[in-house]
């Protein structure tokens, strides 16, 4: 998942800064900025983010005038597409439902769909080792109890003299 620092680094890199300067602008130490810039430039998430940013077309009015509507696009689109908003489709109460819809949308770019799946993953599946101390103790107690449990008693069948 792309962190805030990685995002700042990528945006600075797209704007034309060197890797070292972009790392410093993103908040990394000046002493380690050169090596960190090189690491981040080779990070697959940063590379994918930069590719998406280069594909975006930004339309901005040349001379904004007071009182007129000015097109100021944000980094991420927050309004649903008009075709999705028709009939109430595309309006979500739960962010998890929104991420699920983006992940399953065939109209979206595959990178955006992957990002939505990554963002949704921790809320759907817990990590393998995740759990508290109580859960770990309980699981260990069950494992020990199953090792030393006695055998089940034999079933007694009453025959009453019949064969």
From TrEMBL:
Q: What is the protein's species of origin? A: Rahnella variigena
- Tell me the Pfam families matching this sequence: Terminase_2
Q: Where is the composition biased (Polar residues)?
A: 68-79
| Protein name stated in the entry | Terminase
- InterPro entries, per the entry: Terminase_Gp1_N_sf (IPR038713), Terminase_ssu (IPR005335)
> Which stretches of sequence are listed as region Disordered?
64-89
